[in-house]
Amino acid sequence: MLDGKLVDGNQPHIVSYDDFLRVQEMLGNRTGVYTHKKETPRFPLKRHILCAKDHTPFTAYTVKKKNLDYYKCNQVGCKTNESAKKLHSKYECLLHSFNIPDELTDILRDIISRMIEVDNEEERKAEILLKKQKTECQNKMKKCKVRYGMGEIDEEIYETTIETLQERLTKIDHELANCKRNLSNLSEEVDDTLAICCKLDTLWKNASLELSQRIQNLLFPDGILWDKEIDDYRTFNENKALSIIARISSDYKNGKEKNPSEFSSSVHLCA
Hints:
Blueprint: H1 17-28, E1 49-51, E2 59-63, E3 68-72, E4 81-83, H2 84-96, H3 105-119, H4 121-149, H5 155-184, H6 186-198, H7 200-206, H8 209-219, E5 224-227, E6 232-234, H9 240-253, H10 260-270
Parallel strand pairs: 1-5
Antiparallel strand pairs: 2-3, 3-4, 5-6
Helix pairs in contact: 2-7, 3-6, 4-5, 7-8, 9-10
């Protein structure tokens, strides 16, 4: 009858109001509806690994008595069942092939910086346009004040015009601040991208579940195959840019590209 409104009774309170709200919050989470359990960091590769035999996504489970984790294919007739420890270790080795040698980091930093600057070109154009609009708005405000001072417009028109121009100026300043903030983050964005490219295996190993899966999806958007016959992964449809970097890095390590500048030229050609 009170539409959920709380009304104090006459009896002494059994619990405090804060405790009451906390209990209600906990009870409110019990919906009685089945929901999927939240993924745990123990199984970052769950559903990312596909069985090479039938392309069925792997599920995961834990042998509680021994506290051992496993991935497996649930396809009827397939007996692929692998230790999570082994699959994680082999995945790290795979990611290690994408790492960039220290000798090439300065070149890669320059390349990434230039690529991000190109992406930010629209942002710079927007900043120039906003500055122009700000100047125009400020000039209109000055003219309005002069006309009001000369008695050419009355107070009501003056106040309405100034208020409208001030609102517009505030909006422009807000958009300009966002542009400057985005452009000023260039160095940080370059560092983050470089860190990802240089230490993918370490980053993945120590990442949260969310970040590790973002890395996985970045590298292999459609997942990765586990081939039981060769006891290793098989990749397909991997990220083209990172794949090229991995190939060039591998060639450099193997001495096929003696000069680091060849790395720079190759990446620019691929881009």
